[in-house]
Amino acid sequence: MIKLKTLNSISSIVCFTLSIVAMFFPELIIMLFQIDGNETAYFIGRRASILFLGLAIWLWMDRNTTDTSSIKAVCAGMSILFTGLAILGTVEFLRGNAGIGIVLSIILELPLGVSYFKLWLGNRNT
């Protein structure tokens, strides 16, 4: 089973990268997902970039924790976050609201979500 340190490190890097891209290169996301870019999309993207930055810092700082309450909380939250994003991306792709580029996100998010869920399952009774 993947360890929390590894999973949090990977997730932190992913979140940090998303933060930088959403803040400074939102056109890349617009192009990748094949969605309409306008001021509203850029506004939401910049706000989301700060959310991802906060998650990145939180995950990085929590990667060495041994506190089971913290491990369970992080795993539950990140499992919902990544799995939810993968499901939402799939639904939007199937509805025609996002282009094929969203599949790259789904391929990254789903294994992360499942890994956090497995880690949560392994720690839920401790």
Q: What can you tell me about this protein's structure?
A:
It is a single chain. With 126 residues, the chain is an all-alpha fold. It has one domain (4-123). 82% of the residues lie in helices and 0% in strands. It is built from five helices and no strands. α1 (4-24) packs across α2 (26-33), α1 packs antiparallel against α3 (39-62) and α4 packs antiparallel against α5 (102-123). The protein is globular, with a radius of gyration of 15 Å. The chain starts with a helix and ends with a helix.
Tell me the layout of helices and strands.
Layout: H1 4-24, H2 26-33, H3 39-62, H4 68-95, H5 102-123
Helix pairs in contact: 1-2, 1-3, 4-5
Task: Pick out its properties.
mainly alpha; 126 residues; 5 helices
Mean pLDDT: 95
H/I helix tally: 5
Query: Low-confidence stretches at least 5 residues in length (pLDDT < 50)?
Result: none
- Rg from C-alpha positions? 15 Å
Give the terminus-to-terminus CA distance.
Answer: 16 Å
Series of secondary-structure elements, N-terminal to C-terminal: HHHHH
Overall spatial form: globular
